[in-house]
Specification:
The structure is a homodimer of 458-residue chains. Chain A is of the alpha+beta class and 458 residues long. Helix content of chain A is 33%, strand content 22%. Chain A has two domains: 282 residues, 3-Layer(aba) Sandwich (Aminopeptidase), CATH 3.40.630; 122 residues, Alpha-Beta Plaits. Strand 11 of chain A pairs antiparallel with strand 11 of chain B. Chains A, B: One of its GO terms (biological process) is proteolysis.
Chain lengths: 458, 458
């Protein structure tokens, strides 16, 4: 099987190149027909290896739903990817045209697939689909049941995916999800992104006097809402960098030392993370390293603050109100609604009697976290180790990945993010590339994973 | 003398009405010739009672310099006022045309002089000048030496006055200044504004990462400058409402209890000050009442704060910088430059090693405070008591009055602010008025003051 993949690599690449040549830029309405072109191409492609397919219309770009469910007794996996790509501006910075894919040597002599979408996400999704294709062509059947969902709006808001998933809620019954849209730990070390932080966004506005005041006439005597707001913000963290909202750390999981030590091994040191942004010391909880603070620890950030006179020069005003946009990043089982409630109580406790506060919600999503002790994670890790000859890194993502939340909410399933991209792939930038090695060994990895999942006990 | 004033009141009013009919709106270039008209009118008027006069040109409206120095051995007082007025929009809200002065009855049956400039400041300056005129006409000489400076840009920035004063620095040698541009304590109680707060303005910008960051990817680990700024602002006041900048209270004077208790008697209660602006409790130092906090205690106010995303909706950013505009109101002998220096040191002590801070200065002026035990204050108080038959209130002004600082800086003299306006005079608004009683008893007051000053020992 794996030898067939090696021998068929030129043909696999040719299929990838066909897809890469379609400029399916979802953000630009002028390219809507190209998005449909890509969807149609994928539909026909999937049908060549026994998937039943539908092009599902949305108010935006279509979503492809494809299934190969013949392995009746095996687990049912849902594979999510996206066929749309980022715009290509500024075009003059590309070394070769973005939609004329080519294999070139990078600075270190490695072969890379050059072109928009090679890494994000067409190259990545074809690692999975070429694996399915090879297995089907060799055996006439996949080892597990597979549902494929490929959307066309991931790069432009993805607003129609959640509604589509809701519609499928009672007809699809996947056991788990796989997503191939993330990085490896290093070019040699595979990674599974097993923890994705959730988010609670809140806007807080504190009102004091019934109008803006002259700070000469009223300065000292009139309550200043900027001062009140600052005091509340200051109190949100204690001297150890811990968030002080009551019950905030309920549901925060303990991450085993062997997982965290791997993060240092793969180079996620404080210096590596902070030095590129001009900083030296991790600013969060003192007991945790920078990578831990962003991957497995919850946080509270002030995303914006506003009040009084903000223009050039000076105006001696005491404003009637001041506001801040504040977000919490959540991990593990933290409950976003409970945190919102406790945060609001916390803020109210800082409001003097003659001020009032208003809140506005800006989203609430749970963290996505797979079971670190569950049977799937270990199985996938082993399969990846067999292909890459080293231990798989269990990593996190500090930012939210909405589809992970959507899949959790609609189907109640965990998402395993297994990707073969690299941090230097220039996704969203000129000269996007995907290592040829990622493409080749990515296909081989999925063959191993699919067979390994065949016997996993859920 | 006083009887002459009573008998001559109709003629005094006619002279005031002539001046009020000149629409000397300094902010509107279309009225520049009217400003000059007012200056010329005042020049000719002053010459009718023995003042030597000059119209001093500036790049804006002219300044009148007039002197009557024949009382060789008597003190030399500088009287400052302004002949320009505020614009009159919205015109439709005026009950009678703004530049057609008239005496009308107000709601309580009092006679008031109605028209733009009646209170701010033409009516007030003519209380002083009509007093001089009456004394000269009766005696052929003023009891003290008098220099009059009348500017035409007080309502539009006053930018040329400081330069004019500097030019006069070595030719004028006044002993003290009088300004008639303030309110009485109540319609029955005269007031001397003896303390005017100074100001130090500072803009503080705190820089952290070298660019705006995604708060998912970096939240917790990357220093958030809004958080740092909030912590610094919080620390600027202690739990008792005192400003914590080192040595901040050096030079803050003790105000005798009899002066402060008068403030409550004239109605400056916490409720009277705070209830109109929708507040209940004085927010500054707990040991002081609201009026004390604004008149005789220094303060620190946050006039503006800005950082991160401030638009509609939400953006999960950790900004590269955050800034605040912060001002200190000063009293007594507080040193603005020392406070600026100590404040900057204070801020720097809050800056983590991988942040940096920049400061921008926005003005530094000392408080204006007359000696509460000096011979002039008591003399003027006594003269006012004789006219109004009650004790004069010694009051403060929370906001800066730039000319007080200019006179202190250039001539090294104290300014005594003696005004007969009332809080309901609608200065800067439609239907400006000046109580006829203020005009009449104001002239009488100045006669008493000028004679009393004749023998004051400096």
């Amino acid at each position: 099987m794996l030898k067939d993949i090696d021998q068929g690599l030129p043909q696999s690449l040719e299929r990838l190149f066909e897809l890469l040549r379609i400029p399916s830029i979802s953000a630009d309405p002028d390219y809507a027909h190209e998005c449909r072109h890509a969807a149609n191409w994928l539909k026909e492609y999937l049908e060549t290896f026994n998937f039943t397919t539908q092009i599902c219309e949305t108010e935006g770009h279509p979503i492809i739903l494809a299934q190969e469910l013949s392995a009746t007794d095996a687990p049912h996996i849902l594979f999510y990817g996206h066929y749309d790509v980022q715009p290509v501006d500024p075009l003059e910075l590309w070394h070769t045209p973005p939609f004329e894919p080519a294999i070139i040597k990078d600075a270190s002599g490695c072969d890379v697939i050059h072109g928009r979408g090679s890494s994000d996400d067409k190259g990545q999704i074809l690692t999975f689909l070429e694996a399915c294709r090879a297995i089907y062509n060799q055996t006439g059947q996949l080892p597990v049941r597979v549902t494929v969902i490929l959307e066309g709006e991931e790069e432009s808001g993805g607003e129609h995916l959640p509604g589509f998933l809701e519609v499928q809620k009672n007809s699809l019954h996947p056991d788990m999800a796989f997503i191939c849209d993330t990085d490896m730990a290093t070019p040699d070390v595979p990674a599974i992104t097993a923890m994705v932080r959730g988010l609670v966004g809140e806007e807080v506005t504190i009102y004091a006097a019934n109008r803006d005041l002259h700070s000469g006439l009223y300065g000292n005597a009139a309550r200043n809402p900027i001062q009140v707001l600052s005091e509340m913000i200051t109190a949100l963290r204690d001297g150890q960098g811990r968030v002080t909202v009551p019950e905030f750390y309920e549901g925060v999981p303990h991450i085993p030392e062997e997982i965290k030590s791997k993060w240092q091994e793969i180079g996620k040191t404080d210096e590596a993370l902070l030095s590129p942004i001009g900083l030296k010391e991790a600013a969060g909880e003192k007991a945790f390293k920078a990578v831990e603070q962003t991957w497995c620890r919850p946080s509270c950030e002030i995303n914006g603050i506003s009040g009084g006179y903000e223009g050039a020069g000076f105006k001696t005003v005491i404003p009637a109100k001041a506001s801040a946009k504040i977000s919490f990043r959540l991990v593990g089982q933290q409950d976003p609604l409970k945190i919102r409630k406790n945060f609001r109580e916390f803020v109210k406790s800082f409001i003097p009697q003659d001020c009032r506060v208003e809140f506005e919600s800006h989203g609430a999503s749970r963290a996505g976290m797979v079971s670190l002790n569950g049977p799937v994670l270990g199985t996938v890790c082993d399969a990846l180790r067999d292909e890459w000859h080293c231990e798989t890194a269990i990593v996190g993502s500090g930012g939210a990945i909405p589809v992970v939340n959507d899949l959790q909410r609609v189907f109640g399933i965990e998402s395993f993010l297994v990707g073969f991209a690299n941090v230097d792939d220039c996704i969203h930038s000129p000269n996007e590339k995907y290592n040829l090695r990622s493409f080749h060994k990515g296909i081989r990895s999925w063959v191993r994973i699919l067979y390994a999942l065949q016997t996993v006990k859920l």
